[in-house]
Specification:
By secondary structure, the chain is an alpha/beta fold. 44% of the residues lie in helices and 12% in strands. It contains 14 helices and 10 strands. Helix 6 crosses helix 7 and helix 11 (310-325) runs antiparallel to helix 14.
Length: 388
């Protein structure tokens, strides 16, 4: 009886107060409306992030991102892909990793680019990505392209490196376990192996695809002659070898110089570019010194302070001026330049925080260049920043 009476008693008092003390109506109504607004906002946030913090993707994620066919295959890459080379390892912040993956997908970035030895420590980027994929992206697996690679040092001994059948198949199995996936969309050989016959390397990729552990195969860091040999071996076993991943930027034009860019176009093979900002040189970040939180200051493995020569700084300043004339940041212009002619189907960006991803995708609104602009960029790179 008491448990039934107590709620009724509270309700009775509330009703009496509402009826017999009208002077308090306005204040109570304002408070109630405020509570309702707060509740509506809370519910909107929960829908945005999902119940109990589970991620819910932005409904508009496909509105602005272009998708480009990968060579002559049926697959399309987003114009921008997210790389896990840096900032997803054991030395990164897990919440920031999660936020970057969510931000990327919310902006239509459907491709996550990994490798077995991305870290540091080796394998940690895949482990972290696998946890986030399981917790946040399980409903979206079929909307994602998840890739991995093997070809560099991974474990001790003679079987943990390069391109043997044993190494590649074992690496793929390990990557799938770390990622918590049944398959990856593309599995790459990460670099050419001068000792292993190309037929063995490509044959291993063929078995990986045939076993359902990958849908397509790719190669990375292969020059023109190596790419031609890989395609020939792939054709012999009917392997869908669809993409070559190469370093490419305004400052690094190796794929033009060794003929890969033209050859892949002629053969119907896609190209995806990494290091499009030359490890941060193609930004305005170093124009006025070396920031304490910059890659040069924090991580000397891939970019050192001695790269910032007077000639390099002059080039960066001249390119930055041209970017401003285009209404872009230097980073935006550098990313747009990669996609200027259609030969590259996607550009892999790195990030250390979600805001960088949001900033980088802005270049998609302006990817066209005049012939004069392209000539100025070429002249700046050749003349040490004196052109234009």
């Amino acid at each position: 009886m008491a448990t039934l009476k107590q709620p009724g008693h509270r309700l009775s008092r509330l009703c009496c107060s509402d009826i017999h003390e009208p002077g308090k109506d306005s204040g109570k109504q304002k408070k109630a409306e405020g509570n309702r607004r707060k509740h509506r906002q809370t519910e909107a946030n929960r829908r945005r992030q999902g119940m109990a913090g589970v991620y819910v993707a932005d409904d508009r994620r496909y509105e602005a991102m272009p998708y480009h066919r990968v060579g002559r295959s049926g697959l399309k890459f987003p114009a921008v892909s997210l790389g896990f080379w840096h900032n997803f390892g054991s030395n990164g912040n897990f919440d920031t990793m999660r936020a970057m993956m969510r931000t990327a997908f919310d902006h239509g970035i459907t491709q996550f680019d990994l490798a077995n030895n991305y870290g540091p420590e080796y394998g940690s980027a895949e482990t972290n990505a696998g946890r986030i994929l399981a917790e946040d992206f399980r409903p979206y697996r079929d909307e994602l392209i998840i890739t991995s690679k093997a070809g560099y040092d991974m474990w001790p001994g003679p079987y943990g490196d390069w391109g043997s059948r044993k190494y590649l198949i074992a690496s793929c199995d390990q990557s799938l376990k770390r990622l918590g996936l049944d398959y990856v969309d593309i599995f790459y050989h990460h670099r050419p192996d001068p000792e292993t016959p190309i037929e063995e390397t490509i044959g291993a990729l063929g078995q990986i695809v045939a076993s359902g552990k990958a849908l397509y195969a790719g190669i990375s860091n292969y020059n023109r002659e190596q790419t031609e040999a890989a395609l020939r071996a792939a054709a012999d076993i009917h392997l869908p070898l669809i993409v070559n991943q190469r370093r490419y930027s305004i400052f690094d034009r190796g794929i033009e110089e060794d003929g890969v860019k033209r050859f892949c176009r002629e053969q119907g093979m896609g190209i995806i570019a990494f290091s499009p900002l030359a490890q941060g040189l193609l930004t305005d970040r170093y124009l006025h010194g070396i920031p304490e939180d910059s890659r040069i200051a924090r991580d000397h493995r891939f970019l050192r302070a001695d790269a910032l020569t007077p000639a390099m700084l002059s080039r960066i300043a001249a390119l930055n001026k041209l970017a401003e004339e285009r209404g872009q940041t230097l980073a935006e212009m550098a990313l747009a330049w990669i996609l200027r002619d259609g030969d590259v189907c996607s550009v892999i960006i790195g990030a250390s925080r979600p805001e960088q991803i949001e900033e980088n995708v802005r270049f998609l609104s302006n990817t066209a260049f005049t012939e004069e602009e392209l000539q100025r960029i070429d002249a700046i790179c050749k003349d040490g920043g004196q052109a234009g």
